[in-house]
Design brief:
This protein has 15 helices and 10 strands. The chain is an alpha/beta fold and 377 residues long. An 8-stranded parallel barrel has the order 1-2-3-4-5-6-7-8, surrounded by 4 helices. The N terminus is likely disordered.
Length: 377
């Protein structure tokens, strides 16, 4: 307890003075206390997404409110960082200078301080800026304006605080538009944060293929390229309420083929690639089954080829399987994906902690043991 308090003090003191005064009161740094882990090196090796909290339209709207104990619980489990999805766009004015609401900023300060106090690195991730992806020309200036404020506020934060410019660019934010906006935004961030870790990902929802095919990365030694890994998506997103109707077939296993063929729902049969996927899933032997190891290896090899050709650090910022898939399949997929990522030298963050892909059951107040083991053992 004493140690936690003193490290919190150190973390607060390391944040910008303007920020620190907004943070919870603490007794101040204790120079004799050992830091929990070095705060100056964001390894981003093994992390978890604190999803569905600050990325919801308002915190709690999606059932997750962050608590102080989340950070120590995550640290004690063995993770070294958290990724914090934040919907800044819902808490800022619509016109210049696009001021971010101060209470909301203080909540982000709070999360950063508690991550650092627990020896966790933290990725502050701009999440769910849907207005930007549906109308990039209208929202580009606002996006840059938001980052200007975020970068200024955390300019003196320890290097263990990283920035992720935008979660899963997609829709009308085409590769050309995103590459240009990314470069422009990075310039603004670098004016105040010349050496901070900044994470960038490609269009098509941060797919590995978009890294390979379309992401243009500015020459910057502190950039990390990210991708999200949800393949096979008919397994990881089976029955997800926010997906199109062709994703409604549940009971999809990993690895395939299933012992008894699965009949996809009507809405799935009417979409050619989905229908064909299920035909192969039901019949193809394990080695070449689309719900099998080969799919994972293919995706991760694409990201690895990018890492090698660009000599860049690559981070798998999201991966996970929805909680109504069967547990044995979720655990097998999670373990395989995590191990293959580590084999290629990628850090990762599981999606998510307490939301729909949960590794932690908030109702039970307990980790999902099979998933925790798949992630960390
Ligand atoms: C989205 C979540 C979603 C997850 C998996 C995240 O980037 O923000 O809402 O549950 O991806 O699809």
């Amino acid at each position: 307890m004493v140690r936690t308090v003193s490290v919190l003090g150190a973390a607060l003191a390391l944040l910008a003075p303007a920020t620190a005064c907004l943070l919870p009161q603490s007794p101040g740094p204790n120079p004799s206390a050992p830091p929990a882990t070095p705060l100056d090196e964001p390894k981003l090796a093994r992390g978890i997404n604190l999803g569905n909290a600050l990325d919801a339209p308002s915190e709690g709207a999606w059932g997750v409110v962050l608590a102080e104990g989340d950070f120590s619980r995550i640290r004690d489990a063995g993770f070294d960082h958290v990724r914090l999805p934040v919907r800044f766009s819902a808490h800022a004015s619509a016109s210049p200078p696009y001021s971010i609401d101060d209470d909301f900023f203080r909540r982000v300060d709070w999360a950063i301080a508690h991550a650092l106090a627990n020896g966790l690195a933290i990725v502050v991730d701009m999440h769910h800026y849907e207005e930007l992806t549906s109308d990039p020309d209208l929202h580009a200036d606002r996006f840059v304006g938001l980052w200007k404020q975020i970068a200024e506020r955390y300019r003196a934060a320890p290097e263990a605080v990283g920035f992720e410019l935008l979660n899963e660019p997609h829709d009308k934010l085409t590769a050309d538009k995103w590459n240009a906006l990314l470069a422009r935004t990075l310039g603004v961030v670098r004016a105040t944060n010349p050496t901070r870790t900044v994470i960038v990902e490609g269009v098509d929802w941060a797919s590995a293929t978009s890294l390979r095919d379309s992401l243009r990365v500015p020459d910057d030694p502190a950039l990390v390229a990210s991708f999200h890994m949800y393949q096979p998506i008919l397994f990881t997103h089976q029955g997800a309420a926010w997906m199109n109707p062709e994703f409604r077939t549940t009971g999809v296993r990993f690895p395939g083929p299933p012992p008894v063929p699965l009949t996809p729902v009507e809405t799935a049969r009417s979409v050619a690639w989905v229908r064909e996927w299920f035909e192969r899933y039901n019949r193809a032997p394990a080695e070449i089954n689309p719900s099998g190891n080969r799919t994972i290896v293919e995706q991760l090899d694409i990201a690895k080829a990018f890492a090698e050709s660009h000599r860049m650090r690559v981070y798998m910022g999201e991966f996970g399987a929805i909680d109504h898939a069967d547990m044995a399949s979720r655990a097998a997929w999670t373990r395989m994906t995590r191990q293959e990522a580590e084999r290629r030298g990628f850090g990762w963050a599981y999606w998510d902690d307490g939301g729909g892909f949960k590794a932690y059951d908030r109702q039970l107040g307990a980790w999902v043991p099979e998933l925790l083991a798949a992630l960390l053992r």
